[in-house]
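ok here's Transposase:
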Amino acid sequence: MANKAYKFRLYPTQEQAQLLAKTFGCVRFVYNKMLEERIQIYEKFKDDKEALKQHKFPTPAKYKRDFPWLKEVDSLALANAQLNLQKAFTNFFSGRAGFPKFKSRKAKQSYTTNVVNGNIKLANSYIKLPKLKWVKLKQHREIPVHHIIKACTITKTKTGKYFISILTEYEHQPVPKEIENVVGLDFSMNTLYVDSEGKRANYPRFYRQALEKLAQALHFGQSVHDNGWGLFTTFLQYKLAEQGKKLIKIDKWFPSSKTCSCCGRVNVSLSLSERLFRCACGFVADRDTNAAINIKKEGLKQLGIA
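and the structure:
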């Protein structure tokens, strides 16, 4: 089984918008309340790990008894707030993220709900959602009939627009393809990537300028570009897998930039400021293109066809 998400613009009525605002607030309240109580519990049992393991953390059902107005919103949205907090703590204890933070009203407003007994349906440019009933949406593309809706995430932007991401599940058996074409990609600070044919990513210049300004303003530098590369790699791997294709990642210590793609000689003294690769064998090429060719060759080796 595989998953695919579809994002559409929502157009709630005034009454539905009020209920959405209430749901966003209730989800944030439950998340923060559970986080607050967990912090208190961890502090109370910090010297008694056995007692901490046996302690049962509060659930949204408990808060509904204390705060009856929570019953007015989608119960599945509150349950997902609990799951999100649990995931945040799991990531923290595994070292993948920092300690969970309280959610602010100024942060992104969103909540997730799940399909239970056909409570979510799509029909005639409307979607049926728990508590909200039928909400108008702009469905600019069809969801295949064999895709089963599993969950929906509703989001409100800072400009007041509403969107819904519909997560679907479908049976996907990609047909393995014969290796007909292999391309090497070398990440570049200026154009995202350069491929082994010398082609560069041609994304809008204003995007690059905005990224550079963000890096300067936040003093992030390289890390901003690293995040962009990571996101690109994630999307690329997902899209290739859908088509039965494969992404091969080369070891980050592989000297792709310092190795001559013509003779294989390694230029250990090559500095980052040198944008042209020159080899004693007479080979001259753009530094990133040379690296991309080496990455392609290394990928072919890993595929066992070089």
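+1. The longest helix spans residues 14-44.
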